[in-house]
């Protein structure tokens, strides 16, 4: 980091200059030298925001969409097309006051490590928190509700947002869900509440003290299982990043009573005095928690007489109507309800939101049923923990599995569910972990390998294999337990191709929705 910079004609230390950047309207943004590493949607939102603030912005990335690169020039940011696995000479020469790192870049990346040693490093979430007051609809900037977890983040974020909307609030789901938080805080109409999905990558770059530390109204880590180990370097580092979601929470730290690790995270968090720990459980809730009594979702946390009474939030019939009746979806609803109740959303509004909700595609989504065989797309199951939830929901499956395992071991998943499978269809460029796990734990189960390497042919072959072994009463379940990028553009691309192959194979014989895959 350079020892000094010029601000309003006076030399000041870069550290002192950054300390005052706690508002959109702070003067110190003007002329600030900023490097942005990465040019995805997040990287562009960072550059666009900082240019609007008057900073001197250079974006470093090995590549980027042509239209995005052109837009950088239009808005007044510079673009350096350069690899980041070595430190760009231009980055060293720029001597930035602050480096904003896109969440895709891991901490062991060479340019990130240089930035940590020579400058101040922020993530996009820290920047968004510092400038959250650009548009204020009420007396203060909109509160944040923060959500993370190995699985279920997106559905829970959407549910929570729907509950706020049902209460008449202008709410938005943002962050890791696909809408950059910086785009949201600059919305000219503003919002009453931000529901922010946070990945472990974003949490890694979030501080827990100082002006850039998020102070959420309510927060949750839904569950925790090993994932993204190659990015974080260890399971301990991954869990430490997830635990940051609870830091400085004001009203309620919502945790999973069935996941001991989330309770320990809450116990270790430094929160605002008076903040409460609220558990969500699939069973009868203890006083202070939310859960289920008979067929009713109940709140025993945000009611005056929580030791002797409970508030009805919704019924299991409501969940079934909305396609949320599976065990893991039910837990998502309970977590969302606890977050909404922490912000004083009335029970009636929660029920209204649940009744009108429909989960996103590729999350245990029914594709078709024909000849007594159900076809289900859970392409969103990109790790073993997520696949566990969907595998546990069905009696007998033909399991379509495989892909990019991100350093995560699939052995335990196969040991638990492999022996009960009708058969397994293995996709992915590296099939060895799956094949070896089935050889150890379920040697009697038929294993069919997809030999096609052309993306267009992978799912048609997988569907043909599955159809050859499935029997009436079975579910053919796409639950890859792995990322998709070895053969597909995304988990959504993988799921769409699976559904298309199913419909093509079944022709007109299947029951179900054969219209547009997009919800109205």
Automatic annotation (TrEMBL):
Stored HAMAP family: MurD
Family of the protein in this entry: Belongs to the MurCDEF family.
The Mur ligase central domain, residue ranges: 147-339
Cellular location(s): Cytoplasm
Nucleotidyltransferase in keyword set: no
Pathway connected to this protein: Cell wall biogenesis; peptidoglycan biosynthesis
Pfam families: Mur_ligase_C (PF02875), Mur_ligase_M (PF08245)
Protein name, per record: UDP-N-acetylmuramoylalanine--D-glutamate ligase
Keyword vocabulary terms for this entry: ATP-binding, Cell cycle, Cell division, Cell shape, Cell wall biogenesis/degradation, Cytoplasm, Ligase, Nucleotide-binding, Peptidoglycan synthesis
Catalysis: reaction(s): UDP-N-acetyl-alpha-D-muramoyl-L-alanine + D-glutamate + ATP = UDP-N-acetyl-alpha-D-muramoyl-L-alanyl-D-glutamate + ADP + phosphate + H(+)
Entry keyword annotation includes Ligase: yes
GO molecular function, one term: UDP-N-acetylmuramoylalanine-D-glutamate ligase activity
UniProt xrefs under InterPro entries: Mur-like_cat_sf, Mur_ligase_C, Mur_ligase_C_dom_sf, Mur_ligase_cen, MurD
NCBIfam families according to UniProt: murD
Gene: murD
Native source species: Curtobacterium oceanosedimentum
């Amino acid at each position: 980091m350079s020892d000094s910079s010029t601000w309003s004609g006076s030399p000041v230390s870069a550290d002192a200059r950054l300390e005052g950047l706690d508002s959109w309207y702070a003067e110190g943004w003007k002329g600030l030298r900023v490097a942005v590493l990465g040019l995805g949607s997040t990287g562009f939102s960072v550059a666009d925001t900082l240019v609007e603030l008057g900073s001197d912005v250079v974006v470093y990335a090995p590549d980027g969409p042509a239209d995005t690169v052109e837009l950088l020039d239009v808005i007044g940011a510079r673009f350096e097309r350069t690899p980041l696995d070595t430190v760009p000479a231009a980055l060293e020469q720029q001597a930035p006051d602050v480096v904003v790192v896109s969440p895709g870049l891991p901490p062991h990346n060479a340019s990130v490590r240089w930035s940590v040693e020579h400058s101040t490093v922020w993530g996009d979430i820290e920047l968004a928190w510092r400038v959250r007051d650009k548009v204020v609809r009420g007396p203060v900037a909109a509160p944040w509700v923060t959500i993370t977890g190995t699985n279920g983040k997106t559905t829970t974020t959407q549910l929570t947002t729907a509950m706020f909307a049902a209460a008449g609030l202008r709410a938005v789901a943002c962050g890791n869900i696909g809408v950059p938080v910086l785009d949201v805080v600059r919305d000219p109409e503003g919002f009453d509440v931000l529901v922010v999905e946070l990945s472990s990558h974003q949490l890694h770059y979030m501080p827990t003290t100082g002006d850039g530390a998020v102070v959420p109204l309510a927060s949750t880590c839904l569950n925790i299982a090993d994932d993204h180990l190659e990015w974080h370097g260890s399971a301990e580092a991954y869990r430490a990043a997830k635990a940051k979601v609870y830091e400085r929470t004001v009203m309620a730290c919502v945790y999973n009573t069935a996941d001991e690790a989330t309770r320990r995270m809450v116990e270790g968090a430094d929160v605002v005095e008076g903040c409460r720990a609220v558990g969500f459980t699939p069973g009868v809730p203890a006083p202070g928690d939310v859960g289920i009594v008979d067929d009713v979702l109940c709140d025993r946390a945000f009611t005056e007489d929580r030791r002797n009474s409970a508030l009805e939030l919704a019924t299991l019939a409501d969940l079934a109507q909305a396609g949320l009746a599976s065990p893991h979806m039910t837990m998502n609803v309970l977590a969302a309800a606890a977050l909404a109740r922490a912000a004083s959303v009335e029970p009636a509004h929660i029920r209204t939101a649940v009744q009108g909700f429909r989960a996103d595609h590729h999350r245990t989504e029914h594709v078709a049923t024909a000849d007594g065989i159900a076809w289900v797309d859970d392409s969103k199951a990109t790790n073993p923990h997520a696949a566990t939830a969907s595998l546990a929901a069905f009696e007998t499956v033909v399991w379509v599995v495989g892909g990019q395992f991100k350093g995560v071991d699939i052995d335990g998943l196969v040991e638990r569910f492999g022996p009960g499978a009708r058969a397994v269809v293995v996709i992915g460029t590296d099939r060895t972990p799956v094949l070896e796990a089935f050889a150890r734990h379920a040697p009697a189960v038929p294993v069919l390998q997809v030999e096609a390497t052309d993306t267009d042919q992978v799912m048609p072959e997988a569907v043909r294999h599955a159809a050859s072994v499935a029997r009436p009463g079975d579910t053919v379940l796409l639950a890859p337990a792995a990322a998709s990028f070895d053969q597909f553009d995304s988990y959504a691309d993988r799921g769409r191709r699976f559904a298309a192959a199913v419909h093509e194979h079944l022709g007109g014989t299947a029951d179900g929705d054969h219209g547009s895959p997009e919800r109205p």
